[in-house]
Specification:
The complex is a heterodimer. Helix content of chain A is 33%, strand content 15%. By secondary structure, chain A is α/β, with parallel strands linked by helices. The longest helix of chain A has 29 residues, at 329-357. By secondary structure, chain B is of the alpha+beta class. The longest helix of chain B is centred in the C-terminal third of the chain and has 13 residues, at 79-91. Chain B has a single domain, classed as 2-Layer Sandwich (Alpha-Beta Plaits), CATH 3.30.70.20. Chain B is 20% helix and 9% strand. Chain B is elongated. Chain B starts with a strand and ends with a helix. In chain B, the strands form 2 sheets. Chain B has a two-stranded antiparallel sheet. In chain B, strands 2-3 form a two-stranded antiparallel sheet. Classes of the chains: A alpha/beta, B alpha+beta.
Chain lengths: 502, 92
């Protein structure tokens, strides 16, 4: 039984999936402060630009299985098709297969602008396979941007080779700058033909990372730094990391939550190390953002992900499906150029509209100055509007409204990285899981919602709202916040009705 | 005198380029070491190279069948803890 929402017409999801907020990205573009030449390099890179990730797609090819370090959040044995997290892949490719796959995907998903090599091991611990892939793609598919992510251990010795391949961007995972903390994250590294354990290993890794970061920046390569937030291990330390990498010249810092479940078989998962709560993550991201550009739209993709961020179309492009395909890349490049031009035109029009019609929230008759911020969860399938049924949402976009503006905070998955029910579930109903994932939110905005979830949400202190179906997300959030103010709901702390057992 | 790759190997390629004797080769279901070529790195390196980068405990054994990286030595997970967690997961 459905509650029909007044005024709702047929919902049409845009062709592009993935995250869908129009301004998922707060103060319109968090890259605004960057010099023009850097913005030009990242404006169509979905992993670096929040604006771009609504329109452009990326893919990873899993050509790099070997690793030169061990991290406590990684299990080198695993491949589960139900899981979506870094380091996990279903199919290892040779460089030739990877090139074929990239060209097939590029012909079929013209929005795909970026090819990354991210593992499942460390790309620079597999230099021949990684560079062979880059070399071939530079030649055969010059309209695809190449990028790579690395732990940095082998970076200093390979940085010049890397620069030969027309790579604009490198992502480095830097979890610490203090070897005592590093010893709690990295049990060992492989260095100069030996396995080096504990603090000594971490010290070498940190030195190499800082040196590699400097070398990349000196060569004009853009560096994004990823950090995994591990409560009780490096959570307090990451602000210092943020400062340090910014001082060296990294242009973006991405703090990601630790993913640790016992069934993943990782050290942290098995030993019961917890990941951060949504609040803890947001607090740290806010604390670091004073020092540097923070990234909040990262989806922690698999090392073989394909498509828009937030979606994975890898199953459509497995080797058995693409081996027989014959790609006319010259024709594909023409089509791709048209699609990219159309996206650019859309973005330009949007920017112009924003410049002309932007009305700041503070200019609206928003309730008193001291009103508290409110988190709202949005169900959307694309296009920056509220257009998804509550029960169909596999992730929610979280927005914060306060007296001055509305900003995108994060996305929360409802299937919690694992959608297999029998093997991975712990008996908790999917609905209860979704409600738990929305903890801290006071409102859910969606196109429609059934009676049962409505009641359960209310009971959990989260108000479902289907009145803003098909409206632009930011406008709807602002309107609901204003209504809450008029009802006097913003003066006091929300009633916490979260069930103790939840 | 030769090392062996056994069940558990995940075919990650890490060891293959390190072998000073080119004794390691890709095979199915997992990589193998040519016993005729393997020198256990004698004369080349102080540490056995394949076993020094291998991320999987018990995947490489010596000629007596003893694991060069015994359970818990690489992940830091005490074997009894892993057994307990595995039993808990299976009981769900």
């Amino acid at each position: 039984m459905e509650l029909t929402v007044l005024g709702q017409s047929q919902t049409t999801a845009p062709a592009a999936g993935g995250c869908a907020s129009s301004g998922c990205g707060s103060n319109d573009d968090q890259l605004n402060h960057l010099p023009e030449h850097i913005r030009a390099k990242v404006h169509n890179h979905p992993c670096y630009s929040e604006e771009a990730h609504h329109h452009y797609a990326r893919m990873h090819v899993a050509v790099a299985p070997a690793c030169n370090i061990q991290c406590h959040y990684c299990n080198r044995k695993y491949d589960c098709s139900n899981e979506s997290r870094p380091g996990v892949v279903s199919e290892l490719l040779t460089p030739d297969q990877a090139v074929k796959k990239v060209m097939t995907v590029a012909a079929n998903i013209p929005q795909m602008t970026v090819l990354g090599i991210a593992g499942p091991g460390d790309p620079l611990a597999n230099p021949e396979r990684t560079f062979d892939t880059f070399r071939q793609l530079t030649e055969k598919a010059p309209d695809i941007k190449l990028c790579v992510s690395t732990n940095g251990l082998a970076l200093p010795e390979l940085v010049d080779e890397l620069c030969k391949h027309n790579i604009d961007h490198v992502t480095m995972t830097i979890n610490c700058v203090d070897p005592d903390i590093g010893a709690q994250i990295y049990p060992w590294i492989f260095w100069k033909n030996r396995r080096v354990y504990g603090r000594k290993g971490a010290e070498i890794l940190i030195k190499q990372q800082q040196k590699g970061l400097q070398m990349l920046v000196d060569r004009g390569i853009l560096v994004k730094v990823n950090s995994v937030m591990i409560p009780g291990v490096n959570d307090k330390h990451l602000e210092e990391v943020s400062k340090a990498v910014k001082a060296k010249g990294a242009f973006l810092h991405n703090v990601m939550p630790l993913i640790a479940e016992a069934e993943h078989g990782t050290f942290y998962g098995v030993m019961g190390q917890r990941g951060p709560t949504h609040d803890e993550l947001q607090e740290l991201q806010d604390a670091c953002s004073g020092d540097m550009n923070m990234m909040r739209h990262c989806r922690q993709c698999r090392a073989d992900a394909v498509g828009m961020l937030g979606e994975d179309r890898g199953d459509e492009f497995t080797m058995d499906k693409i081996e027989a395909v014959d790609v006319d890349y010259a024709a594909a490049m023409v089509k791709r150029a048209e699609v990219h031009a159309a996206i650019e035109a859309t973005l330009a029009a949007k920017q112009q509209k924003k410049n002309e019609t932007f009305i700041s929230l503070s200019s609206l008759s928003i309730p008193k100055k001291e009103s508290r911020p409110v988190l709202m969860a949005i169900a959307t399938s694309g296009g920056g509007i509220i257009n998804q049924h509550f029960g169909h949402a596999r992730e929610f976009l979280i927005y914060e409204a306060n007296a001055h503006d509305v900003r995108f905070i994060s996305h929360r998955k409802t299937d919690l990285y694992c959608s297999g029910d029998d093997t991975c579930g712990d008996g908790e109903s999917v609905l209860q899981k979704t409600i738990n994932a929305l903890k801290g939110c006071e409102v859910v905005l969606c196109s429609k919602i059934g009676y049962e979830p409505w009641g359960m949400l209310e009971e959990a202190g989260i108000m479902p709202n289907g009145e803003h179906a098909l409206e632009a997300i930011e406008d709807a959030v602002a309107a609901v916040y204003k209504e809450m103010g008029e009802k006097g709901l913003l003066d006091k702390k929300p009633e916490t009705k979260q069930r103790a057992t939840a | 005198m030769a090392l062996q790759i056994v069940d558990g190997c995940v075919n990650c390629w890490a060891c293959e380029p390190l072998c000073p004797s080119q004794a390691i080769y890709a095979a199915l279901p997992h990589f193998l070491i040519d016993a005729k070529k393997c020198t256990e790195c004698d004369g080349d390196y102080a540490d056995k190279q394949c076993a020094s980068i291998c991320p999987i405990e018990e995947a490489i054994v010596d000629s007596q069948g003893a694991a060069l990286n015994p359970p818990g030595s690489l992940t830091g997970i005490p074997p009894e803890r892993w057994e307990q967690v595995r039993a808990e997961i299976q009981a769900r």
